[in-house]
Amino acid sequence: MSEEKPICSAKGCRADAVWVLAWNNPKLHTPERRKTWLACEEHREHLSQFLGVRGFLKDVVPLSEWQPAEG
Length: 71
Hints:
The protein is α+β, with helices and mostly antiparallel strands. It has one helix at about 45-55, and strands spanning about 20-25, 35-40, 55-60. This is Acetone carboxylase.
């Protein structure tokens, strides 16, 4: 297990992540599949909008509460 802190997925951002954006591309993934991006407070809205306009965003959850799916 890595000791590194999760960082934001926004291009060029190195801030600590505090949000998990769960998404999938329905043309590529089964409905239950969830890919994740991490976001800092500053980039949460931007990344959410990017995924949302494409119909990919499924959920936004605080990193401290994120429970990845098993399997």
